[in-house]
Amino acid sequence: MSELLSVEDLNAFYGDSQVLYDVSIDLGTNDVVGIFGRNGMGKTTLLNSLVNRIDRKTGTVTYRGQDVSEWSPHEIIREGIAYVPEEREIYPALSVRENLELAMTADVGDEAREERIQTVFSQFERLGERQAQRGGTLSGGEQQMLAIGRALVTDPDLLLLDEPTEGLAPAIIDDVVDILESLVTGDRAVLIVEQNIKRMLPLIDRGYMIQTGRIVEEGDSDHLSDESLHEKYLTV
Question: Within 10 A of 219 (CB to CB), how many other CB atoms are there?
């Protein structure tokens, strides 16, 4: 496993409030890693820290051997990291196709742009059927698919997913998990933040549990399937 991302002794702050404490994680190329914990434990802050969408942080984030700790979000994303936030952040007034087109940088040629869009439509058939429909009129599950599709058209080496099943109906969760199954077998690394650990364990290689901003447990999916760990760190 060649190392793609390394996070060492990360401390993160919103204003004067510290949210993460000496967090260290790593991902290899094509690695699929889960971050699990209750609400408010720092999972989303960890992802925001990786792309510098927080007020302040200390520690080191290394990507492909480069220290990107002080890079702007724009610079980090251009290096091949795509982030799908929990809020999805699609453009509601733009069509599905326009959302996908806007996600790609200007240096992507017309042929490559269309190929990437068609690849997304082949993975998300509903988006292909609704490509002229405004993003804001899609269902919650379809908006999640669009948010993931927008990340995929950038052809990332590392995909960050924040709570991809949050707020979705059970039947739609099944659809999203099916999509995630296809993504994690692709030629990229994936870091998934989730509360629904039982749905994610079959997808991941390794994972971490976080509590009050600290990594409290780590291991492979077999280790993290221990119900006593779920009771201790995940149940309300």
Answer: 14
Both tokens assigned to 153: 């058209």
**Residue 170 burial (10 A CB sphere; 0-12, 13-18, 19+):** exposed
Cβ atoms of residues 164 and 192 within 8 Å: yes
Residues near 125 by beta carbon (within 8 Å), at least 6 away in sequence: none
Distance, CA of 148 to CA of 55 (rounded, Å): 26
Lookup result for tokens 């739609």: 172
86 CB-near residues (< 8 Å, 6+ apart) = 44, 162, 163, 166
Q: Helix (H, G, I), strand (E, B), or coil: what is residue 91?
A: coil
For residue 27, list its beta bridge partners. 5
For residue 159, the number of C-alpha atoms closer than 13 Å in the C-beta half-sphere is: 27
Measured distance between the N- and C-terminal CA atoms of the chain, rounded to whole angstroms: 36
Cα–Cα distance measured from residue 51 to residue 71, given in angstroms and rounded to the nearest whole number: 8
- Do 175 and 144 touch, CB atoms closer than 8 A? no
**Residues 229, 34: contact at Cβ < 8 Å?**
no
Q: Tokens in use for 165? A: 């099943």
Mark out the alpha helices in 3-109 (DSSP H runs): 43-50, 73-78, 96-103
pTM: 0.94
Q: What is the pLDDT of residues 65-113, one digit of tens each?
A: 999 999 999 999 889 999 999 998 999 999 999 999 999 988 899 999 9
